[in-house]
Recover the amino acids of this structure.
């Protein structure tokens, strides 16, 4: 009886090892899939990565609050929608304007790029639309640019366009590989303070 028992235990060991191996491989594959899904602004399940505002093919939503000191609302003062080693592009809200700020890397750090004619980046109001998907035209058109001034000291060298509710905007920018990319923006909502001053906008945006 003892010999038979010994043979039975010995025969089961490879099965136990194989089962453990299968379990460990499953855990590894699950972990890898989860980590891969966290790159590029998504969790792999269609949800957004918190505080990752990089423009992708996924629709993202964010509330931008004005850059002035009197805004007491929840939201982000600025977001980075694209960044590579030599370029960075940020969005913010300032004095009723939705602003696109292009930055260049110089002496190892980013500094504001003066692109008055919109050669490398710009923003254009496409008019009133019903949804983000209604913005289909890719226009290399810039509505305006302001440089250094006291009023816009927090938005030096920015392209800008006047905020209008339910309007769509086409943003273009150039990467370090000279690739021209387009982002569409839809102003979904806004807030005013007791004086009627615009304090925040909620936007949807995506690459298109």
């Amino acid at each position: 009886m003892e010999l038979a028992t010994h043979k039975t235990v010995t025969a089961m060991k490879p099965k136990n090892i194989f089962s453990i191996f299968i379990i460990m491989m499953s855990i590894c594959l699950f972990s890898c899939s989860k980590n891969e899904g966290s790159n590029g602004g998504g969790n792999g399940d269609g949800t957004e990565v918190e505080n990752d505002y990089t423009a992708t093919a996924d629709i993202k939503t964010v509330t931008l609050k004005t850059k002035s000191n009197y805004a007491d609302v929840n939201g982000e003062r600025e977001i980075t929608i694209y960044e590579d080693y030599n370029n960075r592009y940020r969005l913010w809200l300032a004095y009723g304007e939705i602003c696109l700020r292009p930055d260049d890397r110089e002496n190892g750090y980013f500094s504001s790029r003066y692109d008055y004619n919109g050669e490398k980046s710009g923003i254009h109001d496409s008019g009133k639309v019903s949804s983000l998907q209604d913005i289909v035209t890719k226009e290399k058109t810039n509505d305006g640019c302001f440089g250094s001034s006291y009023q816009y000291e927090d938005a030096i060298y920015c392209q800008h366009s006047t905020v209008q509710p339910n309007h769509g905007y086409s943003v273009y920018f150039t990467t370090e590989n000279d690739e021209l990319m387009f982002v569409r923006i839809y102003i979904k909502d806004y807030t005013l303070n007791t004086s009627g001053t615009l304090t925040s906008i909620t936007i949807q945006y995506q690459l298109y």
In short: The chain has a mean pLDDT of 80. The longest helix spans residues 2-37. The radius of gyration is 25 Å. Helices lie at 2-37.
